[in-house]
Amino acid sequence: MRFPFTGVIPVEKPIGVTSRRVVDVVGRALSMRAVGHAGTLDPLASGMVVVCVGSATKLVDYIHQLPKHYTALFLLGRSSPSDDCETPIEEEANPVRPTSEAIESAADAFRGEFLQRPCDYSAVHIDGKRAYRLARAGHTFEAESKRVCIHRLEITGYQWPHLSMELVCSAGTYVRAIGRDLAESLGTRAVMQSLARSAVGRFTRGIPLDAIDSTTAASHLLPALAAVEHLPVVSLDADTLGLAVRGGLISLPHAAADAIAAVDSTSLLVGILKRHESGEFRLRPNFLGE
Questions:
Q1: Residue ranges of domains in the chain
Q2: Which CATH class is domain 7-66+202-227?
Q3: Is 140 exposed, middle or buried (0-12, 13-18, 19+ CB in 10 A)?
Q4: pTM confidence score
Q5: Which of 125, 173, 215, 224 could pair with 169 as two cysteines, CB 3.0-4.6 Å apart?
């Protein structure tokens, strides 16, 4: 299927708006249904949401590979079921007040790769249901810990009870959980007061949500190739492209990666070449053969 628009639109989401709402606004502006976002941003958070349009909706998994940049503010000595200010907050009667040195030392455990337990109020699936739905219904459960990677974590400010940090992390990381677990390691509790996503990979600036209309959405649409610039790229000649579009296997003897962005002679992304069990490559997704 050919779409009138294909590409990605970086959007600046304001506080109080869901990621689904961002998708709906872009979809209406472009009069398209083939629209999706590459990574949920909670309503209480603001910042970058990358919206995929047309064939680029099949590139969401590749955008998930990009690191995400956040600025977060926590309140220590407090806890809530959601680990943020969305649910009722309970203050500790006699909270431990860690020193700046203790916080910086404890933060080392949250740099690099480690297993993280998702927040109870999260979008992870528990027996086929979203965790936040189960939590709101009063069910008890324990989400399975997942491996995450914090590429950079910097404590940028601390004056009890306020603790601020900047971090760059892998997809699937719960920033709320970092504050929760960091505080627990110091003998206290924490809730996230605010969160802003400043970047997703190379996407550092976006169009404000309230500025999106049919004209601005089209003018801010980036080519689909922008979503996979972290992948190696190969340009296919006409004969090889024809074979790939028909579902044939392509030989790339010097390729080390298992996924390669394939472009035509005009540098237009035509799909992703994925390594077949034979060692050759097949175009999946195949933008031209849809």
A1: 7-66+202-227, 68-195, 231-286
A2: alpha beta
A3: exposed
A4: 0.91
A5: 173
User: How many degrees, rounded to 5, is the angle at CA 111 between CA 105 and CA 117?
Assistant: 105
Tens of pLDDT along the chain (290 residues) come to 678 899 999 999 999 999 999 999 999 999 999 999 998 898 899 999 999 999 999 999 999 999 999 999 999 999 999 999 999 999 999 999 999 999 999 999 999 999 999 888 777 888 787 877 877 888 787 788 999 999 999 999 999 999 999 999 999 899 999 999 999 999 999 999 999 999 999 999 999 999 999 999 999 999 999 999 999 999 999 999 999 999 999 999 989 999 999 999 999 999 999 999 999 999 999 998 76
Neighbours of 55 (CB within 10 A): 23
Residues recognised as catalytic: 42
Look up residue 152 and give its amino acid. R
* Two domains, one topology: 7-66+202-227 and 231-286: no
